[in-house]
Amino acid sequence: MATSLKIDDRLKSRVQHLASLRRRSSHWIMLEAIQQYVEREEAHESFKQEAMASWANYQETGRHLTGQEVRSWLNTWGTDHEGTVPECHE
Prior knowledge:
Structural class: mainly alpha
Low-confidence stretches: none
Shape: elongated
Order of helices and strands: HHH
Strand content: under 5%
């Protein structure tokens, strides 16, 4: 799929300069930038959707973990006494 992208002269110059420094083509620089942006935005959207689903579940059930319970569990990570995921409660 061929797609055109119009950018102003200043941005075009910056892309060309960076491409030259990195010994890459301008096309490669722009493609990489778009790919990173899309991946970042997809991850953000996934995080947001997961948070919304968790909030809906909490509203339905009231089951949760406190911040302190999560911190205590996370503090065991990487130790000889790594804990299991705590059980949610009301």
